[in-house]
Amino acid sequence: MSTGIDHDVDRPQAPVVPLGTPCQIPPGAPSNVVPPPGEDLITVNFGPNHPSTHGVLRLIVTLDGEVVVGLDADIGYVHTGFEKNFEQKTYWKGIPYAPRMDYLGFFANELAYVGAVEQLIGLQVPPRAQWLRTLFAELNRIHSHLIYLGTSGIELGAMSLFFYCTRERDSVLDLFEMVTGVRMHDRYPQFGGVAEDLPKGFYAECKRFCREMPKHIDSYLDLTAENPIWKGRLQGIGTIPAETAIAMGLTGPNLRASGVPYDLRRNDPYLAYDQLDFDVVSAAEGDCYARYLCRTREMYESVRIIEQCLEGMPQGPVMADDRKYVLPPRAELQTSMESLIHHFKLVTEGFRTPAGQVYCAVESPRGEFGCYLVADGSPKPWRVHFRAPSFVSLEATAMCSVNRYIADMIAVVGSLDGVMGEADR
Amino acid sequence: MTANQLARAISSHVRGAVVSHSKGIDMPTVVVRSDKLLDVCRYLRDEQGKNFLSAVSAVDFLGYGENVSGYFGTERGRDLNATGTWGSPATVEAPAKRFCVTYHLAHVDADGAPPDRVRLQVFADDGEPVPSVVEIWPTADWHEREQYDLMGIVFSGHPNLKRLIMPSDWDGHPLRKDYPIGGEPVQFTDAE
Description:
The complex is a heterodimer of chains A (425) and B (192).
Chain A (H helix, E strand, L loop, with lengths): L31 E2 L8 E5 L11 E7 L2 E8 L7 H7 L2 H4 L11 H16 L5 H29 L3 H22 L8 E2 L2 E2 L7 H23 L3 H7 L7 H6 L5 H4 L7 H4 L20 H25 L19 H4 L1 H12 L7 E9 L2 E9 L5 E7 L1 H7 L1 H5 L4 H11 L3 H5 L1
Chain B lengths: L2 H11 L4 E5 L6 E4 L4 H10 L5 E9 L38 E8 L11 E7 L5 E2 L8 H12 L3 E2 L36
Parallel strand pairs in B: 2-5, 6-7
Antiparallel strand pairs in B: 1-2, 3-4, 4-5
């Protein structure tokens, strides 16, 4: 088949920028690089179904030979109308929707939504529930970073790393299953606390996990950190300077890898983070390798936090004692008429909130995950909007990828760690 | 900084910009006039250190305060949330204009300071343009395209205002309250 391109002509392709060149925000639309006029440019649809695009991300790539000279990212292929759905549900019934957006960092989504509603109605969460939430938020962070490491490794051709990562991911999910009954999308945090206290045997299992996990992280680093192929594919690629990272709205490991140690757990502590001892992992280079190192090393810190949670968790109730917002304990329904009425009202009509607006942000594995909620005083939210860190990170794809080889674009997309379910909502 | 101080600081630099301000449940909230929005944003970024835009969110207030939440139906029999079955007594007042665009701003730095968030709001009628803040915070590019796509807010001065989430030939803006839920024609059928 003739493509109209004469492959025999020895034509020089566009020059590539040297490794480590800081990327610049493109003129015009910041998330879209318009290709320069030129001959023999090929525009390729990369995705939406491509093994290297982390889900259904479509990149409209303009190539000069092997070099990316123009890039426009297109999202929305898994748009499922989460925000519209929230408006049709009472507050309680919205909780199971939240974790299905970022299906890897699901716990942070629930925390943001539940936190926003709690802030709106002024519901106090008992200390033990705060610590439990912290524990599972960190377990979830490990889960998310493991998937990042595994899948971005596959995209670079490191097949075996994925199997090691999923092995440990399974043990994280086993811990989730022990407590919540399901492996993902757990609906564990609820308005006023968490669904249940820890079951028997969890402490020992979690302890064992904390003992073994650092060794596993060591082995990932042994496999990759000094591996010449790994370094060759990641070092100096997609270098984002600190100023640019802030202007482009990057948060989480993407921002910290650019030398800005900004972490909501430290800068704006929520849950029990102000009582815990942990380091904010950051790096100065801002390239794909720095982002990889940040995420991988963050897992050590998460293990540290989990250990402290297990040791220092206070005793006490795991649910607030406010029957106007919180479901009464099951046993009470047999004996108390009032509890039955409360239960009925909460399940059917839901609770009413004051009219107002709140924004609740948490540090999800991908960065600042925020929930903006507008209430009109009825049992359903008037409007819910999520600030999804993946959505923002993917804006930087074009800026990081241009003027390098197309293979480097794969490394960039992997290192920005977008989850399409969250970007599209 | 309290909402009072913030509003005073803004009005002293951009005269006549502040419409109202409130303490808010979570952060100081200032409503500004849309023709002064860019000046206020530039002041907040350059003088107040709000170098970080968290998100741009648009809200549709059609039917707000009319005992209805969720789908605000216009077609008889389609409204699952008819007046009187859900919702509270009308205690809230709908704003004078239908749409509200909210900017959540923060301070992000390597110095470990708290984000010190503020909320900036602009009200607009249907089709009334809101100035784009892309030149101030480049991250607003996709945020504004998303709100244009799903809520139909027109951001004047945006360099690339086209649909982002929905297909490019989609009719209507799904997050509006008068957008019907259910019964849309099926996309991509075999019959085509």
